[in-house]
Structure formats: structure tokens, C-alpha cells
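Quick one: C-alpha cells for this chain, please?
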Amino acid sequence: MITLNAGAARVELYPDAGGRLGQITVDARRLLRGPGDGELAWSAWGCYPMLPWVNRIRGGVATFEGETITVPVNYPDGTAIHGLAADTPWGVVDAGDTAAELAVELDVDRYHVRATQRFALAETALTQEIEVVNLASWRVPAGIGIHPWFVAAPVTVPAELIWEGDGPMPSGPPRPVRGAEDLRQAALPPGLDRCWTGLTGTAATIGDLTLSWSGPITQVVVYTGVEGFVCVEPQTMASDGIRLHEEGVEGTGVVALEPGATLAVGYRFAW
């Protein structure tokens, strides 16, 4: 574990556990579901990076520009979930009192990428920068996101649209939000696992916390399936976005990352 400290704020990073942000503590208040909350699956605690794609791939098989991509199925529903890096050890490039840099190289089927995370802690905020470089000699469908498990509080998301469907995998194109789906006013509806788009701002709130972002973030997933916690996941591509992209659906956010090119985003957790 790497520990960062600034005033009353403390951050724990776990390089070996998917390079994740394991806990943020401010004045003894824990902001995340952390490693002390019981025996949890790799997907169920802290805040981990999702890359070089996000959310789910049905059966671990996708098609992109005529090429088949096969990635490991790692979830009981038979999908490949949350990318390739969140359950993979990361290396420590640098670590100091208030900042750290982690990196990992991934080489799985068509994906050969290098990813870097940089964290910087101040007394009132933590910033996180993530970038992915395509090391392959061909284009790949790329995406970046984070998956924070916040302690539950009412949520706002500046989104006008939601992907059609009743679960985590869209069944149709985006449509206007309605009823309890409209998170532009603070709410915490139970049983959510949906992907919002049509973003009109660059920040969500979780109670008195603000999660803001920069870069090509076009989607936010919200999950309220575990009592006491809420996941608010700003990401560059839609859930099941590679399939939707190949079907010609607009607004997926999938980036065709050229050889040698970089996709980068930034996040800021403020309290």
C-alpha cells in the first residue's frame, strides 16, 4: 500500500490490486467502500481504473473493423467486465508524500497498451490522471473510466439522455431521461445499473462530494445495487459500446486509437 497525506486527508493506493485507489479518509471520515469492509471481490471496493475498454463485453468476444477481439471472461454473468487492468498488478513509477505514479503494460489478444495513472493529493481534493497508449501496430477500440464505490448519498449527474434498456447492457439508442432516471436533481433511486449520456456538465455530486472530469468523458454509469454504497462512473464510452459502435449506433464514445496514439482523461475528487 502507498499512503498519501495532506492536512486531514489521507489516500491509500493499492498497486498490486489493480492499481486502485483503495480509500480516501478526511477527518476520520471514509469516503469509499474500502478493504476494511469485509472479504470483497476485486470488483467491489475502492476506485479502480477501467481500461483499455470499459464496462462489459458479451462472452468476452467483440468485433472491431472486421477483426475479432477475445478477452477473458471474468464475471459470473459470462461477460468480460471493467477492462483488463483492474485486477492486474501495476508497477510503482514514483511515490512521495502527496503524489504517486503507477504504470502497467497489457498485452491481450489485439490489445497491447501501456497505461499510466498519476495521483496528487491536496488538503481539499485528489486529482487522478489516466492515459492509455496504443503499442500495437493496428487500431483498437479504446475507452477509459473509473469505478468508485462511494459511501451512499444522494447523487446528481448532468445528463439529459439515458441508454435504452432495463439493465447494464443497452438494448437501444439513448433517449431523454424521465421520472426517477433524471438525476439532474439529487436522488438515490434503488436498483440502478444504467448508463447516462447527453452530458451538459463536467461534474457529478455524491452528497457533499464533487467528482469532476476532463477529457472525452461522454457517459456516466450509476449503480445502486449494494445497500450503503453508490458507484458513479464517468467514462469515455458507453456500456457495451464496442458492439453498439460496430452496429453503427451514434454516441457510443468509442475511440479508434491509432498505433502510437494516446487517450487521456482526468478526474478530481473534492470535499
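DSSP finds one helix and 25 strands in the chain.
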